[in-house]
Protein backbone atom coordinates (compact mmCIF):
# COMPACT_ATOMS: atom_id res chain seq x y z
CA UNK A 1 0.00 0.00 0.00
CA UNK A 2 1.53 5.05 -2.37
CA UNK A 3 -1.67 12.20 -7.50
CA UNK A 4 -4.49 14.14 -8.29
CA UNK A 5 -3.11 15.48 -11.56
CA UNK A 6 -2.91 12.10 -13.24
CA UNK A 7 -3.50 13.77 -16.59
CA UNK A 8 0.01 15.22 -16.14
CA UNK A 9 1.20 11.95 -14.66
CA UNK A 10 4.95 12.00 -15.25
CA UNK A 11 8.09 11.49 -13.20
CA UNK A 12 9.14 9.09 -10.52
CA UNK A 13 7.47 10.86 -7.60
CA UNK A 14 4.01 10.86 -9.16
CA UNK A 15 4.33 7.21 -10.17
CA UNK A 16 5.36 6.09 -6.68
CA UNK A 17 2.51 8.02 -5.07
CA UNK A 18 0.06 6.50 -7.52
CA UNK A 19 1.49 3.00 -7.09
CA UNK A 20 1.07 3.13 -3.35
CA UNK A 21 -2.47 4.45 -3.50
CA UNK A 22 -3.69 2.56 -6.57
CA UNK A 23 -2.18 -0.72 -5.55
CA UNK A 24 -3.63 -3.04 -2.95
CA UNK A 25 -5.71 -1.61 -0.17
CA UNK A 26 -3.62 -2.09 2.94
CA UNK A 27 -0.24 -3.00 1.55
CA UNK A 28 0.40 -5.72 4.15
CA UNK A 29 -0.93 -3.25 6.67
CA UNK A 30 0.05 0.40 6.72
CA UNK A 31 2.41 2.04 4.26
CA UNK A 32 3.70 -1.07 2.46
CA UNK A 33 3.04 -1.17 -1.27
CA UNK A 34 2.55 -4.94 -1.59
CA UNK A 35 -0.53 -6.28 0.23
CA UNK A 36 -1.35 -9.55 1.93
CA UNK A 37 -4.58 -11.51 1.44
CA UNK A 38 -5.85 -11.12 5.00
CA UNK A 39 -8.60 -8.80 6.20
CA UNK A 40 -8.70 -7.08 9.58
CA UNK A 41 -9.77 -9.23 12.55
CA UNK A 42 -13.60 -9.48 12.45
CA UNK A 43 -15.20 -7.02 14.82
CA UNK A 44 -12.14 -4.75 14.68
CA UNK A 45 -11.35 -1.44 12.98
CA UNK A 46 -8.03 0.24 12.35
CA UNK A 47 -6.59 3.51 11.08
CA UNK A 48 -3.39 3.56 9.01
CA UNK A 49 -1.43 6.81 9.11
CA UNK A 50 1.80 7.47 7.28
CA UNK A 51 3.98 10.22 5.85
CA UNK A 52 6.37 9.67 2.92
CA UNK A 53 9.21 12.01 2.01
CA UNK A 54 10.84 11.85 -1.42
CA UNK A 55 14.36 13.09 -2.11
CA UNK A 56 14.75 16.02 -2.76
CA UNK A 57 11.71 16.96 -0.67
CA UNK A 58 8.34 16.16 -2.25
CA UNK A 59 6.00 13.88 -0.34
CA UNK A 60 2.54 13.08 0.92
CA UNK A 61 0.53 12.16 4.00
CA UNK A 62 -2.16 9.49 4.09
CA UNK A 63 -4.97 8.44 6.43
CA UNK A 64 -6.86 5.20 5.78
CA UNK A 65 -9.51 3.83 8.20
CA UNK A 66 -11.03 0.37 7.64
CA UNK A 67 -13.25 -2.16 9.45
CA UNK A 68 -14.26 -5.83 9.24
CA UNK A 69 -17.58 -6.80 10.83
CA UNK A 70 -18.52 -10.02 12.61
CA UNK A 71 -21.38 -10.57 10.15
CA UNK A 72 -19.07 -10.37 7.11
CA UNK A 73 -15.71 -11.65 8.38
CA UNK A 74 -14.38 -12.01 4.83
CA UNK A 75 -14.86 -8.35 3.83
CA UNK A 76 -12.82 -5.31 4.85
CA UNK A 77 -14.37 -1.92 4.05
CA UNK A 78 -12.26 1.21 4.15
CA UNK A 79 -11.41 4.57 2.67
CA UNK A 80 -8.31 6.67 2.13
CA UNK A 81 -7.43 10.35 1.99
CA UNK A 82 -4.03 11.50 0.74
CA UNK A 83 -2.59 15.02 0.70
CA UNK A 84 0.46 15.87 -1.40
CA UNK A 85 3.11 18.56 -1.51
CA UNK A 86 4.41 18.48 -5.06
CA UNK A 87 4.32 20.82 -8.05
CA UNK A 88 2.46 18.30 -10.24
CA UNK A 89 -0.31 17.54 -7.72
CA UNK A 90 -3.49 19.62 -8.04
CA UNK A 91 -5.32 18.49 -4.91
CA UNK A 92 -5.97 15.65 -2.46
CA UNK A 93 -7.22 12.20 -3.43
CA UNK A 94 -10.09 10.50 -1.64
CA UNK A 95 -11.92 7.23 -2.29
CA UNK A 96 -13.13 3.83 -1.06
CA UNK A 97 -11.06 0.71 -0.56
CA UNK A 98 -12.27 -2.90 -0.25
CA UNK A 99 -10.59 -6.20 0.41
CA UNK A 100 -12.27 -9.60 0.01
CA UNK A 101 -10.67 -12.71 1.50
CA UNK A 102 -11.62 -15.97 -0.20
CA UNK A 103 -9.38 -18.23 1.87
CA UNK A 104 -7.34 -17.28 4.97
CA UNK A 105 -3.63 -18.03 5.09
CA UNK A 106 -4.27 -20.23 8.14
CA UNK A 107 -5.64 -22.86 5.71
CA UNK A 108 -2.37 -23.13 3.83
CA UNK A 109 -2.35 -20.38 1.21
CA UNK A 110 -4.38 -17.18 1.50
CA UNK A 111 -6.31 -15.78 -1.46
CA UNK A 112 -8.00 -12.41 -1.75
CA UNK A 113 -8.69 -9.43 -3.95
CA UNK A 114 -8.32 -5.70 -3.37
CA UNK A 115 -10.43 -3.01 -5.03
CA UNK A 116 -9.57 0.68 -4.92
CA UNK A 117 -10.82 3.91 -6.52
CA UNK A 118 -10.06 7.57 -5.86
CA UNK A 119 -11.11 10.94 -7.20
CA UNK A 120 -9.56 14.37 -7.13
CA UNK A 121 -11.29 16.06 -4.19
CA UNK A 122 -11.14 19.43 -5.97
CA UNK A 123 -12.24 18.49 -9.48
CA UNK A 124 -14.17 15.24 -8.98
CA UNK A 125 -12.19 13.54 -11.78
CA UNK A 126 -11.42 9.85 -11.41
CA UNK A 127 -7.69 9.66 -10.73
CA UNK A 128 -7.15 5.96 -10.22
CA UNK A 129 -8.76 2.56 -9.79
CA UNK A 130 -7.46 -0.98 -9.36
CA UNK A 131 -8.44 -4.62 -9.10
CA UNK A 132 -5.56 -6.63 -7.63
CA UNK A 133 -5.28 -10.32 -6.82
CA UNK A 134 -3.64 -11.04 -3.45
CA UNK A 135 -1.83 -14.23 -2.41
CA UNK A 136 -0.19 -14.96 0.95
CA UNK A 137 2.05 -18.02 1.41
CA UNK A 138 2.93 -18.74 5.07
CA UNK A 139 6.21 -20.62 4.67
CA UNK A 140 6.74 -20.90 8.45
CA UNK A 141 5.31 -19.24 11.54
CA UNK A 142 7.96 -16.53 11.19
CA UNK A 143 8.28 -16.22 7.42
CA UNK A 144 5.67 -15.53 4.73
CA UNK A 145 5.54 -14.40 1.11
CA UNK A 146 2.96 -12.03 -0.41
CA UNK A 147 2.37 -11.85 -4.17
CA UNK A 148 0.17 -9.30 -5.99
CA UNK A 149 -0.94 -8.91 -9.60
CA UNK A 150 -3.78 -7.23 -11.46
CA UNK A 151 -5.27 -4.30 -13.32
CA UNK A 152 -4.65 -0.66 -12.47
CA UNK A 153 -5.94 2.59 -13.93
CA UNK A 154 -4.01 5.85 -13.58
CA UNK A 155 -5.15 8.90 -15.46
CA UNK A 156 -2.22 9.83 -17.68
CA UNK A 157 -0.01 8.61 -20.52
CA UNK A 158 -0.58 4.91 -19.77
CA UNK A 159 -4.01 4.86 -18.10
CA UNK A 160 -4.39 1.09 -17.84
CA UNK A 161 -1.55 -1.26 -17.01
CA UNK A 162 -0.57 -4.42 -15.17
CA UNK A 163 0.51 -3.94 -11.55
CA UNK A 164 2.72 -6.56 -9.89
CA UNK A 165 4.48 -6.93 -6.59
CA UNK A 166 6.21 -9.43 -4.32
CA UNK A 167 7.12 -9.21 -0.65
CA UNK A 168 8.76 -11.26 2.08
CA UNK A 169 8.03 -10.75 5.78
CA UNK A 170 10.35 -12.21 8.43
CA UNK A 171 9.83 -12.16 12.20
CA UNK A 172 13.30 -11.33 13.49
CA UNK A 173 12.36 -11.28 17.19
CA UNK A 174 12.05 -8.50 19.78
CA UNK A 175 8.53 -7.71 18.42
CA UNK A 176 10.11 -6.66 15.10
CA UNK A 177 9.27 -7.79 11.55
CA UNK A 178 11.59 -7.24 8.58
CA UNK A 179 9.86 -6.50 5.25
CA UNK A 180 11.40 -6.46 1.77
CA UNK A 181 9.38 -5.93 -1.42
CA UNK A 182 9.63 -5.21 -5.13
CA UNK A 183 6.86 -3.79 -7.32
CA UNK A 184 6.14 -2.36 -10.75
CA UNK A 185 3.59 -1.13 -13.27
CA UNK A 186 4.01 -2.13 -16.90
CA UNK A 187 4.99 -0.37 -19.04
CA UNK A 188 6.75 1.93 -16.65
CA UNK A 189 8.85 1.90 -13.56
CA UNK A 190 9.98 -0.71 -11.09
CA UNK A 191 10.90 -0.12 -7.49
CA UNK A 192 11.73 -1.72 -4.18
CA UNK A 193 11.23 -0.96 -0.52
CA UNK A 194 12.42 -2.40 2.76
CA UNK A 195 11.91 -1.62 6.40
CA UNK A 196 11.05 -2.68 9.92
CA UNK A 197 7.72 -2.97 11.73
CA UNK A 198 7.55 -2.84 15.52
CA UNK A 199 4.44 -4.32 17.18
CA UNK A 200 4.91 -4.16 20.97
CA UNK A 201 3.73 -7.35 22.65
CA UNK A 202 2.27 -5.32 25.52
CA UNK A 203 0.24 -3.18 23.08
CA UNK A 204 -0.48 -5.26 19.95
CA UNK A 205 -3.09 -2.77 18.78
CA UNK A 206 -0.20 -0.63 17.48
CA UNK A 207 2.17 -1.11 14.53
CA UNK A 208 5.06 1.26 13.87
CA UNK A 209 6.74 1.25 10.43
CA UNK A 210 10.05 2.71 9.27
CA UNK A 211 10.64 2.19 5.53
CA UNK A 212 13.05 3.24 2.79
CA UNK A 213 12.49 2.68 -0.93
CA UNK A 214 13.76 3.46 -4.42
CA UNK A 215 12.08 3.69 -7.81
CA UNK A 216 13.87 3.39 -11.14
CA UNK A 217 13.11 5.09 -14.45
CA UNK A 218 15.26 7.76 -16.14
CA UNK A 219 16.34 8.69 -12.61
CA UNK A 220 16.46 6.80 -9.34
CA UNK A 221 14.36 8.39 -6.60
CA UNK A 222 14.62 7.46 -2.93
CA UNK A 223 11.74 7.84 -0.50
CA UNK A 224 11.39 7.40 3.25
CA UNK A 225 8.21 6.56 5.14
CA UNK A 226 7.09 6.70 8.75
CA UNK A 227 3.79 5.00 9.60
CA UNK A 228 1.60 3.89 12.46
CA UNK A 229 -1.48 1.66 12.61
CA UNK A 230 -3.96 1.88 15.47
CA UNK A 231 -6.59 -0.87 16.01
CA UNK A 232 -9.76 -0.55 18.09
Describe what this molecule looks like in 3D.
Strands 1-2-3-4-5-6-7-8-9-10-11-12 form a 12-stranded antiparallel beta barrel. It has one helix spanning 12-22; strands spanning 44-54, 58-68, 75-85, 93-103, 110-120, 126-140, 143-154, 160-173, 176-186, 190-198, 206-216, 220-231. With 232 residues, it is mostly beta strands. The chain contains 1 helix and 12 strands; from the N terminus they run αββββββββββββ. Residues 1-16 and 19-27 have low confidence and may be disordered. The two termini are 21 Å apart.
Got a strand count?
12
Helical content stands at under 10%
- The termini sit apart by 21 Å
Multimeric organization: single chain
Order of helices and strands: HEEEEEEEEEEEE
Query: How does the helix and strand content classify structurally?
Result: mainly beta
Q: Trace the largest sheet across and list its strands.
A: 1-2-3-4-5-6-7-8-9-10-11-12
Low-confidence stretches are 1-16, 19-27
Query: How many separate helices?
Result: 1
Radius of gyration: 16 Å
Strand residue percentage = over 45%
Shape: globular
Q: What kind of sheet is the major sheet? A: 12 strands, antiparallel, barrel
**Average predicted local confidence, pLDDT:** 83
Amino acid sequence: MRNNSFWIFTGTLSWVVAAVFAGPTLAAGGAHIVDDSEVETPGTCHVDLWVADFVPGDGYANIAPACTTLKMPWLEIGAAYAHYWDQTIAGPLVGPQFKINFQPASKGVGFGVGLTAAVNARTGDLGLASLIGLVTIPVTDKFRINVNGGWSYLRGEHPTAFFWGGQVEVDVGWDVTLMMEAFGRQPGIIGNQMGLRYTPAAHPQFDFDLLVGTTYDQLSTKFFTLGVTVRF
